[in-house]
Design goal:
411 residues; Rossmann fold; six-stranded parallel β-sheet; alpha/beta; 15% strand
Length: 411
């Protein structure tokens, strides 16, 4: 199969799970003998230009004529069977769909975040979940509340891009052949936004196996028990709830590894030191550094207080037989099979978090049961084999649908 992948890479100074997921999928397709062409842009090209770059990015996000012309040229030279779009923010823009919708080629997009219905892509405002703009054709609330980077001016491009999709049908992704989402939860939000359920496909993220000989990776227990958090150190990630749980646990608490960087780093580091919590801050680590921490981890904790879309670190943990303790927010309960490969606690409830973590700390049998199931979940749902099978089913489904039903749209 000849596949054209379209993706706007986020800046290299802000490590992105989306970039990792796209690169993994390209690698997966090529490994299985498909001919893959990539049309991409990188946000670094504008970030280096400072304020001028930000202004240009804002304009390009609304409409990018140059990207349309470049894509048109690629389509003329590379006769794709399927076009698979990932991120179009901020350079490519949804204007590229005007070109794609004119072609007799099935077009899909994977939505890695909630930017379709939220300017900041997280559905969070003032540190709490916000769904005001879901289902709104003209999401004026995003401007009113300055939802993108707390800036009225920086929110304008997203707002005008949404408005443009009303008047120029070719820029609205609701009109393409298929929408790929990462979870049932994300699918439910799209349906609330008016998408046809029939055109929505669920394909979770995946990770390549770190265990080539397929021997179940045993996790450590009891005196070697370590808990790990990996992510951005910001309010919506639930760090304060996590540290409250460790404070409540007291001197007998196991080692808590915190991997990542962000605006809360200085404050929570000082607080943890002052309270003598059994916490170690590792800062930002590259992929190999994160893997070294996970290799000695018994439990991964994901205490998010916002709508996560998926979280690659969860399946990285599962691939090592590490169970996950996650909050009941967003897609997390869709990824974790409650009481099978992990546990779920009530978001912002540090006592519930503590109780669930301690249950695993105290019971080697429970930990080993969840650990074994975590690895089974990885093999069955989140491995490269499962991902490839799922992706091919989706591609074939849209190819068949296209043959049976010609798209009737005038971009």
């Amino acid at each position: 199969m000849r596949i054209l992948i379209v993706h706007n890479y986020y800046g290299s100074d802000a490590p992105s799970g989306e970039n990792i997921a796209v690169d993994a999928e390209i690698k997966l397709l090529r490994m299985n003998g498909h001919e893959v062409e990539v049309f991409s842009k990188r946000s670094d090209s504008l970030r280096a230009k400072g304020i001028a770059g930000k202004l240009k990015a804002g304009l390009l996000f609304i409409y990018n004529l140059k990207a349309k012309k470049e894509l048109s040229s690629i389509l003329n030279n590379f006769k794709a069977d399927v076009v698979h779009v990932h991120n179009t923010f901020p350079i490519l823009s949804n204007s590229i769909f005007e070109i794609l919708l004119k072609e007799d080629i099935p077009v899909l997009i994977t939505l890695h975040n909630y930017r379709y219905s939220c300017a900041n892509g997280l559905h969070i405002r003032n540190k709490t979940v916000c769904t005001t703009c879901i289902g709104k054709s003209v999401p004026i609330a995003a401007l009113k509340h300055r939802c993108y980077k707390a800036s009225f001016l920086q929110t304008i491009p997203w707002f005008f891009s949404k408005c443009l999709s009303i008047f120029k049908a070719g820029t609205n992704i609701i009109n393409i052949d298929g929408i790929i989402v990462l979870s049932d939860f994300q699918k439910s939000l799209l349906i609330k936004n008016g998408f046809n359920e029939r055109n929505i496909y669920i394909k979770p993220n995946f990770t390549f196996s770190s265990n080539s000989n397929e021997i179940f990776p045993q996790v450590t227990t009891n005196n070697e028990f370590e808990v790990t958090f990996v992510g951005r150190l910001s309010e919506e990630k639930g760090l304060r709830t996590l540290l409250k749980a460790w404070k409540h646990w007291g001197g007998s608490a196991p080692m808590l590894n915190i991997v990542g960087d962000g605006e809360l780093k200085s404050k929570i580091t000082e607080e943890s030191t002052a309270r003598k919590l059994n916490v170690k801050f590792h800062g930002h680590l590259d992929r190999s550094g994160v893997e070294r921490i996970l290799d000695r981890t018994s439990l991964l904790v994901v205490p998010s207080e916002c709508y996560e879309t998926f979280g690659l670190v969860i399946i990285e943990a599962f691939s090592r037989g590490i169970p996950v303790l996650g909050s009941d927010m967003g897609a997390i309960p869709s990824v974790i099979d409650r009481d099978v490969d992990g546990l779920i606690f009530r978001q912002k409830d540090y006592i519930d978090l503590f109780t669930k973590a301690k249950a695993l700390f105290d019971s080697k049998a429970l930990l080993e049961k969840l650990s074994a199931n975590a690895y089974i979940s990885y093999k069955n749902k989140f491995s490269e084999k499962a991902a490839y099978s799922n992706l091919m089913k989706i591609y074939n489904a849209v190819l068949i649908e296209r043959k049976n039903n010609d798209r009737k749209l005038s971009p």
